[in-house]
Specification:
This protein is α+β, with helices and mostly antiparallel strands. It folds into two domains: 3-75; 91-149, no CATH class. It is built from three helices and six strands; from the N terminus they run ααββββαββ. Strand 1 (91-94) and strand 2 form a beta hairpin. Helix 1 packs antiparallel against helix 2 (48-75). It is elongated and about 65 Å long.
Length: 150
């Protein structure tokens, strides 16, 4: 498989993970709202149970908004851009692991290989930002070499 196809697969897996997260959060938010509606009107002004359900709903709504924003970020990653240095949207292979600079999703599996979808805000990205193939960087006391960027 060539590098553009592999990167497209990595991006698709990230989008699928994020879409599933959005679906789960939607369900949980709607479920909390339904439970609050089923419970009925507050029994008194100190009705903590209904307030807790509505607070839970609001928490899920906030997380849902953030997840949608992350999916929007994934949707703007260009697949046709060629990378000669570590930057947002690049897949980076180091001597230790493989990373996709996008949003913080964590470990994903693509064709039996493990990749880590990381945000440009994490320290490991800051350590390798702007580096090119063959260059090294130090992270957590470990010296890592950039083997490939695509």
């Amino acid at each position: 498989m060539n590098k553009p196809e592999l990167k497209a697969k990595i991006l698709d897996v990230c989008k699928n993970v994020q879409s599933k997260n959005i679906d789960t959060l939607k369900y949980e938010m709607e479920d909390a709202q339904k439970m609050a509606n089923d419970y009925g009107c507050p029994r008194d002004r100190y009705d903590a149970y209904r307030a807790q359900l509505l607070s839970k709903r609001d928490l899920f709504a906030s997380q849902l908004q953030k997840s949608r924003e992350l999916l929007d970020v994934l949707n703007i990653i260009p697949l046709d851009k060629q990378f000669d240095k570590v930057d947002f949207g690049a897949a980076v292979v180091t001597s230790n692991q493989k990373m996709f600079i996008s949003v913080s999703i964590g470990k994903i599996e693509v064709d039996g290989e493990s990749y880590y979808a990381i945000s440009p805000m994490v320290p490991v990205y800051k350590a390798m930002q702007g580096k090119r193939v063959g260059e090294t960087f130090v992270f957590n006391g470990n010296k890592l070499e950039i083997v490939d960027i695509f």
